[in-house]
Structures are given as structure tokens and as C-alpha cells.
Amino acid sequence: MSRRVPVAALLSLLALPAAAQTPFGPSDPFESRLKTKPTFQIRFRVPEKGGEVRLTTKNPAHYEKDVFWEGSGEVTIEYQDVKITADRARYDFPTKTATLDGHVVIDQGPTRLSGSHGVFRVEEKTGRLENATADLAPTYHVVAEAIDKIGPETYRIEKGIFTSCDLPHPEWSFYLSTADVTLDDYARMRNVSLRAGPVPVLFTPWLVWPTKQDRASGLLVPGVGFNSTRGAYLGLSYYWVTGRATDSTTQLDMYSHGALGLGEELRWTPTPESAGIVQAYMIRDPDSTVCVPFEDEPTGTQPCILADGRSGVFAKRERTRWKTRLDHVSDDLPFGFRGVLSVREYSDEQFLRDFERAFALSAARQTLSRGFLTKNFGDDSVNLRVERSETFFGTEVIQERLPSLEYFHRTARLGNSPFFLALESSVSWLYVDRGPGLMHGQYGRADFHPTISIPWKSVPWLSLTAKGGGRWTEYTESTNEAQNAFTGESRTRTVAEAGASLVGPSFSRIYEGSIGPFGRFKHVIEPRVDYDYASDVGDPLSIPVYDEVDTALGRNQIRYAIVNRLLARPADPKAGGGANEIASFEIAQTHAFRLPQVAASTASSFESFVEKTGPVEGTLRLVPGSLFSFDGRVAYDIHVSRITAVSVATSVNWKTNYVNATWFGSEPAPVGGTTSSRTDQIRLAAGIDLGKALRIDTQLNYDAQQSRLLEDRSLLSYTGSCYALFLEVRQLRLPPTTRRDYRLVVNLKDVGTLLDMNGSLDRIFGTR
């Protein structure tokens, strides 16, 4: 369980991210770049008793037995784990006190104290050092007029600065008038100001920082910032250690425009193999986005769909909004079971857009909650699964699995026979709600799907696998022909299946020669034929479709291909490893002896226009190493004599830089006098170091058919010697409006996030 940092302070402007901005941690490709964890802990060793004092010096010493010792020039005093060096020193035997002067350095474990002069009681390991500097693990520095060790476990700092930057001119630092540091307790600091270079930025008259090895209860550092929609905010949080393996955090968030949020987080780790977290957050939002009837907002311009299916418009209203999250994983359940539970619930769809700062969440059109209890034993596995999904595309679509009991048997030999058995089976209770006027209700489903196969490979250049099986599925409900309502009648689906897979005869040739890092190549040419048969299903329109189990219908088709593979072995024997496939080229085509069944009411009307012979498909893959990869695919329809689909995906990686580009387009052949819409999209993701400190990462999604940039996101980061700055700009062009946001994050080395603020670019520039 991670360690929380409590703060008790009268803080005016100490900025850490407010919990209201991201009540729960987002899942986001850039998020790990923006976050940093504090690692600071003040640690000094408690004095040990016993041992002798060793005194050495370069110049002759003045010495009176049992009274005093004086030395000058490279003076060294050693006692237990303490080593002291100075230009000059006097050691008093009765009091066991050293008076030090000139380039004083006191080393104790990983801690180093240095100063111009001081007094140190060797046996007690206490004293005072003036014009002092302390170097603390891992990279912290304290510079003060004086540092006193006033007790076995207590230090006092007078008029000092604290920083993890390089001295003598730190890029950021905390200035303080005094600080009392007690081991395994707290560091209590007074009149603390944060400075950027020499310029004061933030101030607090009192700051408490824990020095405890374990977690400590208390107020967390308040978060302050600004949101362009809800104004300035202040976030207050209290952290409570409720037990050895549990803790809780209560948060209160206040916005200047009137929004008020309250949240609670509970965490637990009952065993090393199990952990969980539950979070709840509620906010009274005076400016929430809701869908209302036209008559309630006659000036509205952004359309939406109401819960009852009527058309409406988006408007601003005062609402109480909320979200909940529950995550738990247990890898050590009895009898070898493993359990996982993940729940996400929101008060409304717009909560994602209004409050989630992470781009992946704010642009999401689906929320998913799921849980499973599973056990694997040999080639078998049992899985108990629950699931709920809500999809938002104009109307809300809900699907639930409450629950589903599944049993799987992976392909394995039946005893000593040449046959292999695979089995998929499940018993499920399902619920669907596809929206107003569409299918709504719950039903049961049982599915049993065995497959028996027999492989044959007597020669290395030819292999054949034959298979046969069937599928039996029972439904407690069936659908009408329009597939918009249940009929109240049960339904049974039976399917007989057969298939065969032939690879070969294969031909190969080995080439000796050096190209790049490779010194030997093998070219393999092999034909492949795959036959797949499933008997027709009577009245497929009556089957309620929930997932891929329900779309298994009749088919009778064969796919034939010729595959070229190029394998390469490294020229350097020290590189190790065997041959790797660096390139492949495949040409394939599928022919249907009869058209496959489709669970759609319009399928029969287009059957006479669909061709049984599919397009010629070509696939080229290049993976010569970790630096570069390429995947290109093309489909050529012989009936219309043109390319109907193409896609290209390529990736280039070097050091910490990368460029990933994808282009995919399609123009399906016309069916029954109708034409399908053409698609043409380009996606780009790249991260480039512009220098030692500056880097840019970007993601683009461009629709070439519409000549429109659908989505773009860029992150500019600057990493100094002891801090990091991040500026993120995001644009998402989805209804109801285009969203243009920014996010600014300031992280301090080893201390954590100092500032995290976000808002709308349109509001800044006055365009909305």
C-alpha cells in the first residue's frame, strides 16, 4: 500500500492537484508521463552506545592526557559510524566534545553535514554546525545558517533552504525560518515559501512533513488551481490510517462558481496477493450539461436523445452528479481460484466529458463493469463471470451478464488415441436494453460447443488436420422478425461443423550471404488450404444476439493461399538465438459454396447480388528488427475489377523516439444497386526528443474522405535538472461540440506534483 503524505498547515497557495479534478486515477497513454511520486524521507541513524574515539591530524597535536587534544591540518575524528573531518579541531575528553573549525564535514551513513565551524558531542552524536549544508538521500540538499542536533532523534534548522536542485543556484527551493525534525515523527517547519529561482511564488506560515517510516494520518496537502468551466478550486483531503492493511481518504472540493464536491476512498490489502479500492464521489454542479426537451430550452442548438427516445437539446442545469469505482483482485483464494472485480458507474453520460481530465475517459462512449472467478487445472478452466456495459451513441444501450458460468477444455489429446478434443460451454443469464422501441428484457442461454480434431504429419513438408463437431444452444427467449421485441417463446439452435486444414507441400531454400545484421537466410514457399463448414440454422432472425456465440450460423467455404516466408539468422554467433521470420508475403482468396447466413432482416433481399467468390487478398509483413516494422494489406474485387480495401501500418523506433503511422481505406463493391460509404483515415502517433530537455509527443486522427482532422493531441515536456513542465493540448471533434482543452503540470524532482490545472482553450481565447 502506498504511503500518504499528511500536512497540517495554514496554507494559502501551496498547489498540488485537487482531487476534484480527477476523483479517480484515469487510464491514459500520456498519464504516466505527467505523474511523479514523492520519495522524500528524512532519515538519520539513532546513536549507538560503546566504542572508542580515534583522533588523527597532519600536524603535531597538542595533547594533555584525559584533558584535551588539539590538531590542525586534515583533522579526522571517528566514532562508530560517524566520521568528522576539519581544518582544526579540539577534543575535550571529560565532556567528549569536539570543537571544529574550517571545512567541517560530518558523515553518518548516507547523510553528510558540512559547515564552517561547529561543536559536536561525539558520544551523544549531538551538536551544532554553522553555515551548514546537509546532503540527504536520495538527492536532497539543506542549506542553513545553523543545523542543531538537540536530542537523540531531533534536529533543528535555522534560516535554511530545502531543494533537490544543484547548488548554489537552485532552480526551485523551499525557504524556511526554522524547522524541528524528529525521527520517526514529523518535521515541523515555519514560514515556508516556495521560490522559483530567487522569486517567491507560494507561502505558508506552517508546514508539517512526516518523517515516519510507516503511513501517518493527517490532512493532505491542499490542492488549488483553476478550471475554465467551474473557476478556481480548493481541494481539502484528510487521510486516516484505519488499520495495518487499510486506510481511507475523505475529500472536499470547492469551486468559485459554486460547485461543491465530496468524496471518499477506502483501500485494503488483507494479504500480499490481494488488494482493493473503492471510491465514491458526488458533486453539486450548478452548470451541468443535461439533455432536456425542446420546449424547456427553445434556444438550444445542440441536439440529443432523451431517455424515452424523444429528441431534445443539451442545456445547463443545476444537478447532483456522482461516480463510483470499485476494484479488487485476489490471487490467493481457496482451492486455487482467482477473483477480479472492476465496477464503474456514472450518474450521467456527460459526467465523463465534464469531469474526467484523461482524454481516453472524457472521449469514451462506453462504461464497462465486470468481475470473474476463475480456476485453471491442467487443460481445463472454470470461469464465473458477471458483466455490465453501457454504450452511448445517441441512445443508451445496456447489456448485462448476470452471471455466466463457463467451462473450457483446451485442445488436448484424448488418452492414447490420435484424436484431440476442445470444448467451449457456458450457461448464462443475460439482459439487454437497446433503447426506446427496441429489444428490452432478460433471458437465459446454454451453449455447448465440442470439437474433435485429428492431425496428420508423416513428412516434414506436409501437414493435414481434420476436425468435426457441433454446437447446441438453448434460449429461453426468441425475437420477432424485426428483432425489436421478445416473443416469449424458447428457441433451440443446433449446428453441425466440419473442417480441414492443409499446409504444404512446402518448398525451401537456404541462402548464404551477409545483409545488415543477418548472415544466413531461408526462403519458404507453402500453399495453405482451409475448409470450414457449418450447417444452416433455421430462422436465424429469431435468435437474440448478445455476443459472438449468437452469430455462429451456417457457412460452407474454402480459403486457399500461397505464403512466402523469409527467415534470417544473425551473422554474429555471439548474438545467439535461432532464425527469426523477418518477412512474409501471402496471397489468398475465399470461395463460398453457398453464401454464409447472416442474422439480419435485410440479408435475403441482397442474397442474389452477393458473390460467392471473395476478393483476392494480399498481405505483406516486414519485421527486420526492433527498429522498423511494416504491415500492408490489400483486397482486390475481381467482380468490379478494383481495389476495395487497403491498410498500411508501419512503426519506426530508435532510442526513446518512435513514429507509428496507420492508413486504412475502403470502398466496398455496390450490392443490389446500393453503394456503401467510402472510408479513408490516417492515424499518426509520434514521440521525438527535440533536445536533452525538450520532447514532444503527438497523436493525430485524420479523415481524408472528409478532409477533417477528427482528433489531435500533443504533449510538450521540458525536463530540468530538478523539475519537469508538461503542457498538453487536446482537440476532439465529436458531438455535441468540438472540445479543445489544455493541461499544465509542474512536477518537482522526488517531491511530486506541484501544480496540475486544466481548462478549455475556447474560453481562454473567447471563442465559446
Mean pLDDT: 82
Shape: extended
Oligomer: single chain
Helix tally equals: 4
Q: How far is the first residue's CA from the last residue's CA? A: 44 Å
Q: Could you name the CATH class of one domain?
A: Mainly Beta
Secondary-structure-based class equals mainly beta
Biggest β-sheet description: 30 strands, antiparallel
Quick summary of this structure?
By secondary structure, this protein is mainly β. It has 4 helices and 42 strands.
Structure commentary:
The protein is mainly beta and 768 residues long. It has a domain at 42-212: Sandwich (lipopolysaccharide transport protein A fold), CATH 2.60.450.10. It contains 4 helices and 42 strands. It has a 30-stranded antiparallel sheet that branches. Strands 1, 2, 3, 4, 5, 6, 7, 8, 9, 10, 11 and 12 form a 12-stranded antiparallel sheet that branches. The longest helix is centred in the middle third of the chain and has 6 residues, at 350-355. The radius of gyration is 35 Å and the shape is extended. The relative contact order is 0.08.
